[in-house]
Input
Amino acid sequence: MPTQEIFYHVSGRIATITLNRPDKLNAWTRTMEAEVRQALQEAGADDDVRIIVLTGAGRGFCAGADMSLLQSVAERGTHPLPDSTTNGGGSAGDGPGADFQRQYSYFPAIPKPIIAAVNGPAVGLGLVIAMFCDLRFASEEARFGTAFARRGLIAEYGLAWLLPKVIGHANALDLLLSARMIGAQEALRMGLVNQVFPQDKFVDGVHAYASELADKVSPRSLRVIKRQVYDAMFQTLGQALDTATLEMRASLQCEDFKEGVAYFLEKRAPVFTGR
Output
């Protein structure tokens, strides 16, 4: 796909989307937003892709909305990134639901795991993007901050709903109210990131994890489990149990279940098809 502000590359069943404005710490623009969405949709529909990694070029992940956009908003009073309610990953009938089909919140509707490989600052809108990914791995150089309160803004794009679910009520209020920057180790302690790697081992560490998912786990299981987890945010325990019963019955009839048993008994590498 032709792009201006991202790189898109597929290798070893892993699609890597790289935000590519390194001189601006990959500050977010309208063009970048459209290209990331297109890339995620393409990866979600590609049978050769099982895992998606989102990262930044240079020394930053994403420093938030480009300041030229914010300056224009301050002068004109218009929103820089209009909301979109179009679906980001399949039809409305087969995704997690309408709440996961809007601007940025469509990430959970992409039917494959999305890993945020946070190589540097993830601030403001950059933090929003990282939070809507399914997993977050950080380098020792990563930094995180909401920034909104220090710009006279509020918790944007559903972050007030999502952040407490990931790191807890008190930690979420701390980061949102103070807008302070935190390092990778504090983010790990809060549960904001899953793992921290030394800078010189960061790329290899993320790739190793992504490769393990791509090579050793059923892509059908990944797809169904991801949907279950996000659907469960809106379900009672009883509804989640009912969903699990239906999905288990379907799983027992699928090819990947048969392969999951066969490769274990035959002591060989799995050959999952996603069916």
About this structure: The beta strands are 6-11, 14-19, 51-56, 114-118, 121-123, 135-139, 143-145, 182-183, 195-197. The chain has ten helices and nine strands. The chain has two domains: 6-213, 218-266.
